[in-house]
Each structure stands twice: as structure tokens, then as C-alpha cells.
Amino acid sequence: QVQLVESGGGLVQAGGSLRLSCAASGRTFSNYAMGWFRQAPGKEREFVAAISWSGGRTYYADSVKGRFTISRDNAKDTVYLQMNSLIPEDTAVYYCAATTFGSWLMYPERYDYWGQGTQVTVSS
């Protein structure tokens, strides 16, 4: 089992920044690729970003490319999502997830473990 706990969400004005963190425990963190997903009210959960177990490969949804950056610190068992130039459409609950798969990381079905989510609200 892997336990994931997100933090760093909150209310921010459009154009602002937030940094989300996801702390992992329970298994060897570096064995897992990690992803961030989000879900807005009335919408399906959607892919935001993912990072390979080593951090050497990153993937982004087109909607956040150039604004968001995913990174990880395997020594701290933590993955981060730096979000800049936030827009109201980024408002959602953000979830981190862990998977032993190394490909097709944009699909939520690939992930074995999920955090409880953290709310991000961007005001206009």
C-alpha cells in the first residue's frame, strides 16, 4: 500500500501561483511514476501532469503546458506541482496518484493509489 497526502491548495487570484505537494509513504517511492489529476464540479477527472520514477521524463496536458511544472524529490518521497499563471478554468480538486506502470500515464485507470485531493480555487 502507498498512502498519498496532498497539500498546498487554496484560493488565489487569476495570474497567481500555487505549489502543490504530495507526500508518499508505505512503499519505496522511487518505484512509482506519479501523476496529478484534477476534477471540477460536474466534470470528469482529467489528466494534468505526470513524471517518471526517476524524474527524467515529464508529461503535461495541453491546457497546462508552459504554466505548470511537475517535479519530484525521491529523498523526501514527495512530488510537486508548481502552478503559475493560474486561470479560473484551473479551479478543481487536485489529486496525486501513484503507479507502477511506466507508460500511458495520462489515463487514470493506470494508477493504483490516490490521495484525498486538495481544492484549488482561482478567482477572476
Q: Structural class of the secondary structure composition?
A: mainly beta
Number of helices: 0
What is the CA-CA span between the terminal residues?
Answer: 40 Å
The mean pLDDT is: 96
Count of DSSP E strands?
A: 11
As a percent range, the share of strand residues is over 45%
- Helix % is under 10%
What's the helix-strand series?
Answer: EEEEEEEEEEE
Low-pLDDT ranges: none
What sort of overall outline do the alpha carbons produce when their principal axes are compared?
Answer: globular
Integer-rounded radius of gyration: 13 Å
Largest β sheet strand count, sense and barrel closure: 7 strands, mixed
Compose a concise summary of this entry.
This protein is an all-beta fold and 124 residues long. The protein contains no helices and 11 strands.
Describe the structure.
This protein has 124 residues and is mostly beta strands. Helix content is 0%, strand content 49%. It is built from no helices and eleven strands. The chain has strands spanning 3-7, 10-13, 18-25, 33-39, 46-51, 58-60, 68-73, 78-83, 92-99, 113-114, 118-123. The strands form two sheets. Strands 2, 4, 5, 6, 9, 10 and 11 form a seven-stranded mixed sheet that branches. It has a four-stranded antiparallel sheet with strand order 1-3-8-7, with no helix packed on it. Strand 7 and strand 8 (78-83) form a beta hairpin. It is globular and about 40 Å long. The model has no long low-confidence stretch (mean pLDDT 96).
Name the features.
124 residues; 4-stranded antiparallel β-sheet; single chain; 7-stranded mixed β-sheet; mainly beta; 11 strands; 0% helix
